[in-house]
Amino acid sequence: MRIQQIHLHHIRLPYVHPFETSFGRELSREAILVAVESDDLTGWGECVSGSGPWYSYETIGTAWHVLADFLAPALLGQEISQPEQVAPRFSRVRGHAMARAALENAVWDLLGRAQGVSLATMLGGARNAVPVGVSVGIEPTLDELLAQVEGYVAAGYARVKLKIKPGWDVQVVRAVRERWPQLALQVDANSAYTLADAARLAELDAFDLLLIEQPLHHDDMVDHAVLQRRLRTPICLDESIHSPEHARWALDIGACQIINIKVGRVGGFTAAKAIHDLCMARGAPVWCGGMLETNIGRAGNLALAALANFTLPGDISASARYFHHDVAAPDFTLNADSTISVPEGPGAGVEILPERLAAARLRHLALG
Ligand code: NPQ
Ligand code: MG
After folding, report:
1. So what CATH class is 121-341?
2. pLDDT-based confidence at 22, cuts 50/70/90?
3. Burial, 79: exposed, middle or buried (Cβ in 10 Å; 0-12, 13-18, 19+)?
4. What is the location of CATH 3.30.390.10 in the chain?
5. How far is CA 100 from CA 43, 92, 94, 303, in A?
6. What is the mean pLDDT of residues 268-287?
7. Minimum-distance ligand to the CA of 47?
8. How do residues 115-146 score in pLDDT, each as one tens digit?
9. Closest Cα to residue 19, out of 119, 148, 128, 131?
10. Residues of the chain above pLDDT 70, percent
């Protein structure tokens, strides 16, 4: 298929509930949706960079620049018949994984639609529903946090992830664990600690957590390897893993036992699948992280999480957890067993809603 046109749509959707992490509180999600056109078919991808460089150095602004000025030109006019042909065309671009992923993923969707095959099938999915959980942000008070968790448990989520930071950690985890002794529970620090906090982090060993995610520096592996030797709870890396090579390095030095795979953070489905395969061969579990995506990104996450070694519940919640009016349909709902069904339609299996897209849009660029 010849890639004839590429569109960038910068959108903003208000959250159902504010989301606070160790790096700040946000009321809405900005994102770039990428549309790739060939003849009368369109494939969609979502860029998960944030409005500011907090989780990652990538932002809406840097991704827009890299997509418009480097990545789209490398793809426009090219003949593509396999999704794996995309990543090599971007190999001159260092970093900017979220920008690369958005465009590569749009091509996966386009090819899936053209061939009438679902993204999960293209990737080699092994199940038609995936276990999921919910990521609960930092709240102004412990009572408000407990009320949030209560709502999600009542909605049927069997696994909860709590965001932690210094001053919002052991006492919060203890309170949640005491109230829900059976709940599958894990924590994410988004790099808010240093090795000097090792004793504090070791106190979390008392609460039977599935894992502790990215406690230390966002680019670190060395200190995480030291910390892992002092903890019983498995460390899971998120921010530090940008490629299959990073995953191999981390496992080689014992920096983590588990990896959170985010398609955007690693540069697309091709790299995400490679990390999955590597971890499977090494006996390390993986799970699918979340970036508060629209239904476009969420559909892709569900397809990825259908692969065999995604043995831990993903941060892939029902659509209703995020936005009142998503830009794509159908909405995803939680099944009674805390799973979400993997879309079966061609490509990612969701359709853009043009009126919703127009209502959410801040900026549009057509290339090619
Ligand atoms: C994490 N996600 O696992 C991330 C953090 C995160 C669901 O906990 C805009 C940009 C919004 C970056 C929301 C979850 C974000 C963001 C969350 C990163 O670390
Ligand atoms: Mg994380």
Report:
1. alpha beta
2. confident
3. exposed
4. 5-116+354-367
5. 15, 11, 10, 19
6. 98
7. 1
8. 999 999 999 999 999 999 999 999 999 999 99
9. 148
10. 100
Cβ pair 325, 139 in contact under 8 A? no
Please tell me the CATH superfamily of domain 5-116+354-367, with its number: Enolase-like, N-terminal domain (3.30.390.10)
Compute, in angstroms, the gap from residue 55 CA to the centroid of ligand 1.
7
Distance of CA 115 to the CA centre of its chain: 26
Q: Give strand pairing partners of 189.
A: none
Active-site positions read 163, 262
Q: Quick one: which atom of ligand 1 is closest to the CA of 262?
A: 3
Residues of the chain with CATH 3.20.20.120: 121-341
Q: Is 135 in the pocket of ligand 1 (CB under 6 A)?
A: yes
Three-state DSSP state, 189 = coil
CA-nearest of 56, 49, 53, 55 to 32 is: 49
Residue with tokens 């609460």: 207
Nearest CA to ligand 1 atom 12: 50
Greatest CA separation found in the chain?
60
pLDDT at 23 over 90: no
Q: Count other Cβ atoms within 10 Å, centred on residue 116.
A: 9
Tell me how far apart the alpha carbons of residues 315 and 357 are, in angstroms, rounded to a whole number: 24
Ligand 1 atom at minimal distance to the Cα of residue 190: 19
Q: What is the pLDDT, as a whole number, of residue 246?
A: 98
Distance between Cα 212 and ligand 2 center (Å): 10
Residue nearest to atom 6 of ligand 1 (CA): 291
Cα 290 to averaged position of ligand 1 atoms, centre (Å)? 6
87 within 8 A of 66, measured Cβ to Cβ: no
Q: Is 220 in the pocket of ligand 1 (CB under 6 A)?
A: no
Find out whether the beta carbon of 238 lies less than 6 Å from any atom of ligand 1: yes
Could you tell me if the CB of 190 is within 6 A of ligand 1?
yes
Q: Which residues pair with 93 in a beta bridge?
A: none
Residue nearest to atom 16 of ligand 1 (CA): 291
